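Suppose a colleague, Dr. K., hands you the sequence of a protein chain of 307 amino acids and asks what its three-dimensional shape might be. Before reaching for any lab equipment, you can write down a predicted structure in token form. Begin with the sequence itself:
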Amino acid sequence: MRDIVASTTELEPYASFHPAIAPQKAGRNTRLWNLVQNQPLGAISALILLVIVLSAIFAPYIAPYDPTGGNSAALYVPPSGQYWLGTDAFGRDILSRLIYGARVSLIIGFGASILGVVIGTAIGVTCGYIGGWVDSIAQRLMDAMLAFPMLLLALAMAAVLGSSIQNVIIALAMPIVPRAARISRASTLVLKTTTFIEASRAIGCSNLRIIVQHILPNTFAPLLVISTAYLGLAIVQEAALDYLGAGIQEPQPSWGLMMSGSATTLALTAPWIVLFPGVAISIVVLASNLLGDAIRDVLDPKLQRNV
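The predicted structure, expressed as tokens, is then:
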């Protein structure tokens, strides 16, 4: 007992993650205020993402035109008072397609990043805690997946599964799995040797309880950060799949699909068709990365300034 009490100083880096180690020094409201006050770029990024998500949810009430309905009398119209962002080769309003396209791109981005991180975390935490031959076999499989470039692996999966939204999510989640597994496994290998895990074993906690109540909460912060990073990456990869013809198909609006049919032929004659979807993708990727950095600074006790 004396050794356990004396070793509490070793557990300070994990105190803000696990309620059993030390009392919570900052509530959720305090963490949110720290994010706004100390990480203004992160707060602005979160606001930008929130606006984009809300515009996608309320697209039928915001979009001025039907995103799939064309107007043969308004082909290649540049940005104007009637069409704020211009029209495409079929006379479809670019602004309306951007708003509706946010639905598809965000669903795929969030779905792929969450699915990939959840599966990768389950594999990494389980293998890192159990070890032995289970860990060896799983890590060799992860190495084999990491040997393929992300886009190539996603393209192969999309070619096998098909081009529906659900299949594209699965195809883009698979390259994320081994990367999330590596991060969660590394965190687990460090955590399972700490004193509070040894104390949990000593009082008879089962392996499942230790993993669920002790390991997973302490791996949440880095996994949340990489989830935001993979959100932007999944949207970019989805755009690449659309460009290669293995992603979303017409007439469904998608940011990547809006760029795929015009990037080479209309970049000079009608640049607005390529420019605005590209700007939308860039904004989401930049905002998600900045938000991930801000969340890391707020959740990581080693980087907290005001605790």
